[in-house]
Fold this protein.
Amino acid sequence: MSETALHETLPVGSPGHKAGGWFGMMTLIVTEASLFLYLLFSYYYLAFWSRSGFVPSPLPKFDLALPDTAILLLSSVTVWWGERGSRKSSRRQMALGLIATIALGAIFVCIQLVEWTQKPFHFNSSTYSALYFTVTGFHMAHVVAGLIILIALLVWDWLGYFDRRRHAPFAIGAIYWHFVDAIWLVVFFTIYVTPYLGVR
């Protein structure tokens, strides 16, 4: 056996979608979706049984929330584009997709923090305020976790860990990011839209 063969670098990660991490991520998503379901059920339940004034005046505004939603949806497009690059072994496309997604995710978090500071209430002001900060904060924690995953993927891309066959970690991270974006649409509808539909 040659010395070159002895020192050959082993590939990183499992090939394809049958990687163990894929099923682990699906389990995590189901678990986290259940937690969001409980939180949103609490919101609707308490709003329904409140006599009046569950949502304090003024009603939630869209001036920051709507652009923030558009930014997060755009980040799903960029991570999808980056994942397509991983399937073609295009490290440049993978890196650009990840960098764009990380930047958009960070902007989302910053805008959300700005919106928090502009609220006329605090966490312990009312039942609504506690639910508002809990639900949006729980979602923001998932965005931050997603950003950490994407940064790790970007480092692995720079180290050359991915190729046409072995890109499962990228696909797994992208699935998590899409989940975070999908959850935000439900949170956005609940927090910002339903008060205008009579849930208040």
Notes: The radius of gyration is 20 Å. Residues 28 and 36 are 12 Å apart (CA to CA). The chain has six helices and no strands.
